[in-house]
Target: PPK2 family polyphosphate:nucleotide phosphotransferase
Amino acid sequence: MGKKGKKGKKKKSTSAASGTPFSDALRVGEGYVLADLDTRRTPAFDGDKSDGVDALLAADGELDGLQERLYAEGTAGGSKRVLLVIQGMDTAGKGGIMRHVVGSVDPQGVDLTAFKAPTEEELAHPFLWRIRKALPGPGKIGVFDRSHYEDVLVVAVNDLVPPAQWKRRFSTINDFEQELIEDGTTLIKVVLQISKEEQGERLAERLDRPDKYWKYNPGDVTEREKWADYQVAYQEVLDKCSPASAPFYVVPADRKWYARLAVQQLLLEHLRAMDLTWPEADFDIEVEKERLANS
Amino acid sequence: MGKKGKKGKKKKSTSAASGTPFSDALRVGEGYVLADLDTRRTPAFDGDKSDGVDALLAADGELDGLQERLYAEGTAGGSKRVLLVIQGMDTAGKGGIMRHVVGSVDPQGVDLTAFKAPTEEELAHPFLWRIRKALPGPGKIGVFDRSHYEDVLVVAVNDLVPPAQWKRRFSTINDFEQELIEDGTTLIKVVLQISKEEQGERLAERLDRPDKYWKYNPGDVTEREKWADYQVAYQEVLDKCSPASAPFYVVPADRKWYARLAVQQLLLEHLRAMDLTWPEADFDIEVEKERLANS
Model:
């Protein structure tokens, strides 16, 4: 393709965020059926992979600027903050989101927590204990790689606690999230959804490449064998924990480039809606200029 | 400049890491005199700003690859880890290092801690208490924006504890750092050194731009007025806490592009020396391929 064509493509891809917002295209409302999702689709974006990669890079500057304003507001006593929750099956691309979307943001403004199987100490506390400890402070973008939702997903599928106990957690989670929102948190909850076939290919790649062995765990196949149960558990999460005030967004994730773009755009759309501004000076500018000149 | 010239420049800049290693050019040995440093120099690099910016970008891929190997070793039970300590006067460019050098690394592999004035709880504990809590785990790159060295810098200059107490800390720190090294930590200690004039200009910029007011604090000028005392305190740190096994590197930092490149190259040179390799599979590959195929 010639230079002109390339330029034309770039122009199209920077308009990725116009048209239907990603939030509207991906939001989970009443009656949502996860099983109906075509995980190769690219809602709210009509470009191809190369357009998507361009669009991701093109939005970096705006994301940087909004994040810095958020951080600045936080240092000046503001209470606004963001919590981005990323859920998904093994190999759904959570790591890629962390690396390519979260990784493009100034690390000083990000609090990233990857939740693993709980430790003994964590198990000795209510399930939200470790979650509360990891919540972002004012001005920060908190990112959860897995989250409190594991306590109604892996826990439910594997009967790790009695059903009566984990079933109570849906309302506990809804109350907890409302509390976060009241404290100034903009909550963005995402499920990266891949097909079982796509997961099979991604796991196979890990077994084919010596530089990927470390990412493979025999337990991944054990969990894969419970695929259908996980889908039921995810559907229940979407049924019970996607109120209009704290909705889930389900991102079709068989195409990695699309999933990254979609999460970035969800983050951008939410940051834009936060009306972030540079804080006023809380000192006398002329006095300080004088002090500096004399120092 | 034409295309050919540009290409020529690029070639030169990617060789930034050849010739004298940055570690050798910046390492603090016996008899080092901080006051003799020309903070506009660019040791181990003979290019200009544009070369330096190119060289920084050019090294991204290698840094990524080494970091991923380090992380992989950590997941496989290795004990190696990195701790990058960044010290410097206000406006020396610590934030820029976090954003442009640390920010280029996969955030999943980085533990970044910015140490502020200690809280009441922290003050009620020995000075290394909060430091120990922030140490990186195996496979991680820990980054300290300020560190335990503040406890012999700002503390000494402002008489925050009796001299007999902070003077004891030099040997406490040396012992602590030896312990880290024995535990598998590659320690990289950096001072970003700017001139007083350069600091004056950077503070003035914060007072000139409404989008920078939030970075300004009247206390910055109060500390600036103690510039000479801080230089004495830094010299004492370099005299007492730069043994051959845990040396400081002083980076001339009046040129932001150089400081970023130098810290990146220090990190790279240390990672290269760690002999990082992809872990062997700790499972039977053929068995797992079979399990996966049947799942």
Q: What stands out?
A: DSSP finds 14 helices and five strands in chain B. The mean pLDDT of chain B is 94. The interface with chain A takes residues 72, 75-76, 95, 98-99, 102-103, 105-108, 110, 112, 114, 145, 200, 203-204, 207, 210-211, 213-216, 218, 221, 224-225, 278-281, 283, 285, 288-289, 291-292, 295 of chain B (CB under 8 Å). Residues 206 and 215 of chain B are 7 Å apart (CA to CA).
